[in-house]
Every structure is written in structure tokens, then in C-alpha cells.
Design a protein that fits this description.
The complex is a heterodimer of chains A (about 280) and B (about 350).
Chain A: H1 4-38, H2 47-53, H3 56-89, H4 92-103, H5 110-121, H6 126-133, H7 147-171, H8 175-183, H9 188-216, H10 220-225, H11 233-243, H12 247-271, H13 274-279
Chain B: H1 4-20, E1 32-35, H2 39-57, E2 61-64, H3 69-77, E3 85-89, H4 91-98, E4 121-122, E5 125-138, H5 151-155, E6 164-167, H6 173-180, H7 185-188, H8 193-206, E7 210-214, H9 219-225, E8 231-235, H10 236-244, E9 249-264, H11 272-282, H12 285-289, H13 302-305, H14 310-313, H15 320-323, E10 327-328, H16 331-340, H17 342-350
Parallel strand pairs in B: 1-2, 1-3, 6-7, 6-8, 9-10
Antiparallel strand pairs in B: 3-9, 4-5, 5-8, 5-9
Helix pairs in contact in B: 1-3, 2-11, 4-16, 6-8, 8-17
Classes of the chains: A mainly alpha (about 280), B alpha/beta (about 350).
């Protein structure tokens, strides 16, 4: 006879089988092949890794990519937090409209959205015309082909990934807790800081991790909106795969990026409880 | 080219191919497949080469896009070749020869190649249409007759002020920088470490004035039309396409860098003989003459280019009036210098 706990474990296991099998075939096996590929250079199994780590360009680009990802994450969370809070306060048609407003951009290709930003932000584009026309700026600003352009484009693409987990988290916060805090004499700011903010942090953690991980693979947006300095690891890997046909080197670069991400997440996990954050309770 | 999809597709193809490790049984039954870059070029090739070839050889031809040399390599290594004849940039001919994923061209079948300039005839690919990387400018930045007429002018920020755009890779820029430095085409190749260093230093000199390092062919016409850039290097096909829409852009053939679109045959295709026959047809005078009206890329066969009307001749690289002003890119050298000096080039860009 199975105990209740044992049979529950069995059911959980059975439910996991399709997902685990799918991941094994569609993810673990290809990653294994990629790892093998990264070790096949005739100059020695680790020569590809040595090539990349020994290169000024690659290490510089790795650093730039991670810094860019952190900046995008910070901006997306700062913009996403009040947006998510606003969503929790809306009802009925206004809520539907706002949720579609958040989701709609996800249905349009990143390439098209990036080109649209070029048209909006260019020297004589509508944004600059408005800023100069209203006297806010004396001369058109250079939004494009710099960090500014890349940040605008990437935050726009990634914002829903910050908003949605924060919103899901906020929905579950018991509003009576705020009433209780208020009743006990706390100011609104103190209630926010001591009650609401800590309760919504798991959502912020999830959103931040999503945005950061996705930002590391960005390629089209920095390539089109960025300047020479905005080279990302994904751009270098694409060049190695398609242009140079140097696949072992591309595989090694991919694994180094993966290792950098895992190391960074491990460090983050010391400060943020990632497991609870990912559950977004 | 720019696409995340390419990369995912290639990685996926490489992974599944290595994993399955078996030849595809479908290859024997599938129709003849021609692959090219897509857009205006694919439309032109279908009309000028593939549709007539279907009738001539009484076969069904499937036209697909986009082309990707990494995909050819993955298909060949997986022994699952899905493409029979592929249009590629010239560098892929030499990559395919060196990495052994292309069939050598059978010049017993591709006999029309005898009429071509020998620069367009290579062991593992034959060019069948021609374009160029040229200097173009916004007509408001420079009034008629005042635009830059050489790479020396392009580098001259005093007499030709304004923001510049250049291609993001060393490709074309080596040639442009050398011409700007006064090095003649005949002295440019073979590329030596000294010459590469000289070219990169020359580009570094202009770097403060280069606002955009473009990567997609659609960028230069757009950036020039909108006035974001005063002048930019541009691919002829994209430029002519924009000029049809009356874009405020002008160009010069002077110091143009001519290059071609070549057809190659992936190693192990079941339709090898037919691929050679169609490649041969595509460089026949009949097929080449059809390119004159396309207004995108031009014929590689000089006798066909000479048939251009005066209006058409303005857009033909191979027209003697234009070609004499230009140089021809050595794609074999380009493939080598791009790989060899990639670190130095990127260092210059990041620095």
C-alpha cells in the first residue's frame, strides 16, 4: 500500500514526464551537441574558450552586454511597477483596454517595432519635431545610434515581461493589510514602504530576472538602433555562425554567456530569494 | 544578414542533423529547389531565369528564400540537402570550396561561362548578376554637381561636411579606405597585415564622423532620405529600388566597388546535373538580357549590358561607361581579411 504522500509524489512525477521528456529532446540534447561542438577545434578542445577569453573584443563585448542588460532591467522594472499598480486599480472596460495596451506590442515583430522606432526618433522625426517645436529642446536630439536609442527600443520590447509578473503578484496582496496599516496610524508612504513594497518584491524579482535574461540575447534592436559601441554578444555569435562559419567558436561563446548568466544568477540568489520570486506569490 | 530567425534555424538544423545523422529520403522525390536572398532580387531571378528554365527543361522549380551559407553547410553535413541551386554573395564560393560544402561547377555543362569576364567565373560558383557598393548622398545636403565623387571626398569632412554611414564589417571598407588613401586597385591585393593596418587606421580617422555602422541593406536609403545621414555607402540594388520611389538621394559610379551574386550547388544534391544546366542558362545572353529592365541588379554578361537603352545604362554596373569608373571586389581576399583582422576591426569600432 502506498502512503498518501508517496502516491502524491507518484502523481506529480507522472504529470512531469511529458515536460521532462520534451525538454530532454528539445533542449538538453541540442545543448549537449552544442557543448561537444565547442570542443571540436583541431587546436585543442579548450582552444575556442581560450580564444574568446583571451580576446579584448570579446571580453569587452561580454561586459557591455551585461551592463546593458542591467540598465534595461532597472528601467523596465521602474516603469513597470507603477503601470502594474495602475492595472490593479482598473476595472471592466478600462482594465481590458489597459491589459491589451500592455500585451498588444508583443504580437508585432521586434524587427518592425525597431524600424518604427527609427522613424519616430530620427533627427527630423516626430519626436524631435515635437520637442523642438514646443521649445523643450533648441536643436534635435541624437536619440538614435547611441545607448539612448538601444535603451528605448529594448525597454519597449521587454516592458510587458516586467509588468505582467509584478501585476500578478500585486493582485494577490490582501488590500485589508493596507487598511490595517492605515488604521494603526502609518502614513501612506510608510504603508507602501513597509507593507506593500515588501509584499510585491517577489513579482519584481521575477520580472527583473525575465527582463535581464531576455535582454542578454538581444540582437536586432542594438544592431539597428545602436552605435559602434553597442555591439552585443548575440551579434558576435551571429557573425560567427552565419558569416565566418566558425561554429565551434560560436558554441564556445554561447556557453561562456550561459556561464556568465548562471554565475550572475547565483550571486543574485544570495540577495533575492529566487525560488520564491519565481513562484510570484 | 540580420535575423534572429536565421540563427535559430541554423542552430536547430545543425543540432537535429547531427542528432539524426541519416540522409533524408525526401530528397529523391522533392522538386528542384532554387534559393535566393528574397525581395526584389528573387523576383528578378524568378522572372529572368527560373520561369523560362521551367519551360526549357520541362521541370518544376520551387523558389525559396532567404539564402544562408551556414544553412547550406548544415544541410550538407547532415546529408539532408534541400536546396539544389543557391544564390550567394561571392565570399560563400570560397568558404564552400575551403570547407567542402559545394559541388565544383562543371564547366563542361556551364559552357556559357566562356563569354564572361574571368573574374565572374570561379571553381565553385559562377556569378549571374551584378551590383556594387557605391557612394550616395542626400540631395539636400549637397546640391546638384556638388556631391562627393570619390572615397577621398567621402573622407574629406572639411569640404563635404555631414554625418557618414559605413557598413559594420571590414568588408567593402577595406577597399573604400585604401582608395581614400590613394592606393590603386592593382596594389590593393593581396591584403597584407601592413595594408590591413593602414586601412583600419584610415577608417579610424573618419570614425568620429561615422554616425551609423549599417548592417541591413534597407538602412542606407532610409537614413539618406530622412536626412539622418549626409552620405553613406549603399548597395546599388537597394538604392535603385529607393530611387523608383523618388527618394531625395543621388549617387556616383566613381569609386564604386563592384561585386556579384553567384550561384552555387550544394554538395550532394540529387539534382546536380539540372542545377548546372540552369546555372548555364542563367548566364546565356537571352537570360542575361532580361535583367536590363529589372532596375535592381544588372547582367554580368557584357554583351547583354551593352544592349541597355541610354536610360537603362545608367543603372548597369557592367556597362562599359560605368565599369571603367569602378573597381571589382576580390571576394576570396575579402573572406580572408574579414576573418583575419576581425579582432582589429572590432577593436577600432569599440575603442
Amino acid at each position: 500500500m502506498l502512503t498518501a504522500a508517496a502516491s502524491r509524489r507518484l502523481v506529480t512525477g507522472a504529470l512531469l514526464v511529458p515536460t521532462v521528456a520534451f525538454l530532454a529532446v528539445a533542449f538538453v540534447v541540442p545543448v549537449g551537441i552544442l557543448l561537444k561542438l565547442s570542443l571540436t577545434e583541431p587546436a585543442g578542445p579548450l582552444s575556442t574558450y581560450a580564444d574568446i577569453l583571451g580576446s579584448w573584443v570579446y571580453t569587452r563585448v561580454f561586459r557591455n552586454t551585461i551592463v546593458l542588460g542591467l540598465m534595461v532591467t532597472a528601467i523596465a522594472v521602474l516603469l513597470g511597477y507603477p503601470t502594474a499598480y495602475m492595472l490593479t486599480r482598473l476595472k471592466g472596460f478600462a482594465l481590458t483596454l489597459a491589459v491589451y495596451g500592455v500585451l498588444f506590442p508583443l504580437w508585432i515583430s521586434v524587427l518592425i517595432r525597431t524600424f518604427a522606432w527609427i522613424l519616430l526618433l530620427e533627427k527630423h522625426g516626430p519626436v524631435n519635431r515635437m520637442l523642438v517645436g514646443t521649445g523643450i529642446l533648441d536643436a534635435p536630439a541624437a536619440f538614435l545610434f547611441s545607448n539612448t536609442g538601444v535603451l528605448i527600443g529594448m525597454v519597449h520590447v521587454l516592458l510587458p515581461y516586467a509588468i505582467l509578473p509584478i501585476y500578478a503578484n500585486m493582485l494577490r496582496i490582501d488590500s485589508r493589510l493596507m487598511l490595517a496599516s492605515d488604521g494603526l496610524g502609518a502614513s501612506p508612504w510608510r504603508t507602501f514602504r513597509r507593507v506593500y513594497l515588501p509584499l510585491s518584491m517577489p513579482g519584481v524579482g521575477t520580472g527583473a530576472v525575465f527582463v535581464f535574461l531576455l535582454s542578454l540575447g538581444f540582437f536586432i534592436t542594438p544592431a539597428l538602433l545602436g552605435g559602434a559601441n553597442n555591439m552585443t554578444v548575440a551579434m558576435l555569435i551571429e557573425n560567427l555562425v552565419n558569416d565566418r562559419l566558425a561554429w565551434p567558436l560560436a558554441a564556445a561563446a554561447s556557453f561562456l554567456l550561459l556561464a556568465a548568466v548562471l554565475a550572475l544568477l547565483a550571486v543574485t540568489a544570495r540577495f533575492v530569494k529566487l525560488d520564491t520570486a519565481l513562484e510570484a506569490r | 544578414m540580420l535575423s534572429r530567425r536565421h540563427f535559430v534555424g541554423v542552430a536547430g538544423a545543425a543540432a537535429s542533423a547531427a542528432w539524426l545523422g541519416v540522409p533524408s529520403a525526401r530528397a529523391q522525390t522533392r522538386p528542384f529547389t532554387f534559393t535566393s536572398w528574397g525581395g526584389a532580387l528573387s523576383a528578378m531571378e524568378k522572372e529572368a531565369f527560373m520561369d523560362p528554365a521551367e519551360k526549357l527543361f520541362n521541370v518544376k522549380i520551387v523558389n525559396t528564400s532567404p539564402t544562408n551559407q551556414a544553412k547550406i553547410k548544415a544541410m550538407v553535413e547532415a546529408k539532408a540537402v534541400e536546396w539544389d541551386l543557391v544564390t550567394v554573395g561571392g565570399r560563400s564560393i570560397f568558404a564552400g570550396r575551403d570547407q567542402d560544402f559545394l559541388e565544383p561547377i562543371d564547366y563542361n555543362i556551364v559552357t556559357n561561362a566562356k563569354a564572361l569576364d574571368k573574374r565572374w567565373v570561379q571553381s565553385h560558383g559562377v556569378y549571374n548578376s551584378i551590383g556594387a557598393t557605391m557612394i550616395a548622398w542626400n540631395t539636400k545636403a549637397f546640391p546638384e554637381g556638388k556631391g562627393p565623387q570619390s572615397w577621398k571626398d567621402f573622407w574629406n569632412v572639411k569640404d563635404f561636411p555631414g554625418a557618414r554611414g559605413l557598413y559594420k564589417l571590414f568588408y567593402y571598407n577595406y577597399e573604400a579606405a585604401m582608395l581614400a588613401a590613394g592606393v590603386k586597385e592593382s596594389e590593393m591585393y593581396p591584403v597584407t597585415p601592413e595594408k590591413a593596418k593602414q586601412a583600419i587606421a584610415k577608417v579610424a580617422e573618419l570614425k568620429p564622423h561615422v554616425k551609423v555602422w549599417w548592417s541591413a541593406g534597407a538602412q542606407p536609403p532610409q537614413l539618406l532620405s530622412s536626412g539622418e545621414l549626409a552620405m553613406c555607402s549603399v548597395w546599388s540594388g537597394r538604392l535603385f529600388d529607393a530611387l523608383k520611389e523618388k527618394a531625395p538621394v543621388a549617387f556616383t559610379w566613381k569609386d564604386g566597388i563592384a561585386w556579384g551574386n553567384a550561384v552555387v550547388v550544394p554538395k550532394g544534391t540529387p539534382h546536380k546535373e539540372l542545377a548546372m544546366k540552369i546555372a548555364n542558362y542563367s548566364i546565356s545572353e537571352e537570360a542575361q538580357t532580361r535583367l536590363l529592365g529589372s532596375g535592381v541588379y544588372g547582367p554580368v554578361l557584357e554583351s547583354a549590358a551593352k544592349k541597355a537603352t541610354p536610360e537603362q545604362a545608367k543603372q548597369q554596373v557592367m556597362h562599359p561607361d560605368n565599369l571603367k569608373l569602378m573597381m571589382v571586389l576580390n571576394e576570396e581576399q575579402a573572406g580572408q581579411y574579414m576573418t583575419k583582422y576581425e579582432e582589429d576591426w572590432n577593436k577600432m569600432l569599440l575603442g
